[in-house]
Amino acid sequence: MVSIKELPNRKEPLSPGHRACAGCGAPIVARQVILASPDPVVVVSATGCLEVTTTIFPYTAWNTPFLHNAFENSAATMSGVVAAYEALKKKGKIEGNINFVAFGGDGGTYDIGFQSLSGAMERGHNLLYVCYNNEAYMNTGIQRSGATPRGSNTTTEPAGKVRQGKIKFAKDLTQIIAAHNVPYVAQSIVGDWVDLTRKAEKAFSIKGAKFLNVLQPCRLGWAYNPEETCEIGRLAVDTGIWPSYEIENGILKITKKPKELKPVEIFLKKQARFRHLFKPGNEKIIEEIQNETNRRWGILLSNDGKQIF
Question: Transferase as a keyword (predicted)?
Answer without folding.
Answer: no
